[in-house]
């Protein structure tokens, strides 16, 4: 996308305009949408938290971890038993440091489409790997009912 600015000599010069990327998570529909300049461009099926465990509001991607460890049970990253799957994208939920709630893969792809997690957003590993590659830290994430 390009915008034009008028220089003092009266000559038009093209200047690049950075695209705006954001994520919208719809808990009731179990869907994550990727928006580019306010237009939805990708959709992914997800799993969310039981009841109201997934926080709602406006957050940002706070951190990204490849092959995250599952610390509760000391399961190393990359292990097929790891319930976090192959990628972690932490959310800037207040007072969590970006490590309590996140968008992550799963070792249980059959959970996708359901409200079953402890609050995180689960995705199929191939889907979260795509998201991990294309969505930078600082991206706005809106989670809604």
From TrEMBL:
GO terms for molecular function: peptidoglycan L,D-transpeptidase activity; transferase activity. It comes from the Bacteria. This is L,D-transpeptidase. Keywords: Cell shape, Cell wall biogenesis/degradation, Hydrolase, Peptidoglycan synthesis, Transferase. It comes from Paenibacillus montanisoli. The active site is at residues 104, 120. GO terms for cellular component: extracellular region. One of its GO terms (biological process) is regulation of cell shape. InterPro entries: LD-transpeptidase, LD_TPept_cat_dom, Transpep_catalytic_dom. Signal peptide: none annotated. The keyword Transferase applies. Pathway: Cell wall biogenesis; peptidoglycan biosynthesis; Glycan biosynthesis. Residues 21-144 form the L,D-TPase catalytic domain. Pfam families: YkuD. Belongs to the YkuD family.
């Amino acid at each position: 996308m390009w915008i034009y600015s008028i220089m003092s000599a009266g000559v038009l010069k093209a200047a690049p305009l950075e695209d705006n990327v954001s994520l919208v998570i719809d808990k009731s529909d179990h869907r994550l949408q990727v928006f580019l300049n306010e237009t939805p461009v990708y959709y992914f099926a997800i799993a969310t938290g039981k009841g109201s465990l997934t926080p709602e509001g406006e957050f940002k991607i706070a951190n990204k971890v490849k092959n995250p460890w599952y610390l509760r049970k000391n399961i190393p990253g990359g292990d097929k038993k790891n319930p976090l799957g192959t990628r972690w994208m932490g959310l800037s939920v207040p007072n969590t440091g970006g490590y309590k709630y996140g968008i992550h893969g799963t070792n249980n792809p059959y959970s996708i489409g359901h409200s079953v997690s402890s609050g995180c957003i689960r995705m199929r590993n191939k889907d979260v790997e795509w998201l991990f590659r294309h969505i930078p830290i600082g991206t706005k994430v809106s989670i809604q009912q």
